[in-house]
Amino acid sequence: MGSTASGKSGTWRNWGGNVTVRPAREVTPASVDELAAAVRQAAEDGLKVKAVGSGHSFTAIAATDGLSIRPQLLTGIRNIDRKAMTVTVEAGTPLKRLNMALAREGLSLTNMGDIMEQTVSGATSTGTHGTGRESASLAAQITALELVTADGSVLTCSEKESPEVFAAARIGLGALGIVTAITFAVEPVFLLTACEEPMPLDRVLAEFDQLRTENEHFEFYWFPHTGNTNTKRNNRSAGPPQPVGQLAGWFEDEFLSNGVFHAAQLLGRAVPAVVPTVARISSTALSARTYTDIPYKVFTSPRRVRFVEMEYAVPREALVDTLRELRAMVDRSGLRVNFPVEVRTAPADDIALSTASGRDSAYIAVHMFRGTPYQEYFTAAERIFTAHEGRPHWGKVHTREADYFAGVYPRFGEFTALRDRLDPDRLFQNDYLRRVLGQ
Fold first, then answer.
1. What number is the average pLDDT over the span 203-216?
2. Dist CA 83 CA 102 (whole Å)
3. In this structure, how many other beta carbons lie within 10 angstroms of the beta carbon of residue 285?
4. Is 142 helix (H, G, I), strand (E, B) or coil?
5. Among the listed residues 332, 334, 302, 361, the one whose alpha carbon sits nearest the alpha carbon of residue 117
6. Which phi and psi angles does 324 have, rounded to 5°?
7. Judging by DSSP bridges, how do beta strands 191-200 and 217-222 pair with one another?
């Protein structure tokens, strides 16, 4: 998924294609000891160190011109504790592999995002999340973490062991150390029934609180230039399983969502004037459907159309106003937005730099097809999000800096103080961390 170095030059590109970097050195350690030794060696040689997962971040959070650590050999389940209902997994394990392995064991995560190409450490370190009334982000499901710190030692943390590290390192941005293993809370595998249904935007906004409180997982996509949305409600079900039929699944997920959608994107990029017409057609092409399956088959879907994304978490009570402002801005601007806006929610959590830290949150994600100019749209959207004290996703496009974060994260100082303690010489520094965390 876009993380492979192209040729011998050692140039690395992210999935969105908007970040390119040439590290001085790359290692693919086969054990935690090898990784720790590589960190110590880099420190001796005066190289900065970054771990890079599958490259699904649109920011340069994993970029380095120093030592790039590739975790693809650190994969698989280390331990399943059925009494505690936890699973410990190596940091480089892709979410897809974790989900499938858990399902074979009759287990599941409680909640997850809609993409599962990322590594568990990359996804949690950037605060990846799905949507949920009670259940929060991937990082909020972590019960213990193992990381290699700047001096090359291995540190384990949990609510009981080094709790102050645990409070921050679950979403550590790669600033506190290299995560080598993660312990997640799991539960016996269950069934979810998904109801996907088109609904007018005005109705969704008018009934938003009700839709959110009546469903365990509620999200919707709004198609700019139209008053149309597609809503998705996922709730636990007693069964029986009724998966999406193979032909219907191919038509909805591959042909409509990826194939036709891709063609529409290419057309919109070439002839921006047709975008509103295409949006009206695409937003009415989706029909209602209901299916029941195990969680990862309901929560996640393939993403073959490449895009660039900005996502902000706003206080949940500010969602309706924020979206109305976004809609008015698009209508006023003459912009041609060819990608739906995605809206999800999360309950408050207790992680220092979580986008939902200490407040119930709603997420608004704006996307543009890869290769389409996105700056004007994202800049105008960001102005609206920040007016509501929005917090940007750490792995998605934004222009905020440390002084802004100090204002919107009550526990920002707690995180930077811990970083001073764990990485005083800034071994894990890069340009992105310099910008968002300050010196």
1. 98
2. 15
3. 15
4. strand
5. 302
6. -60, -40
7. unpaired
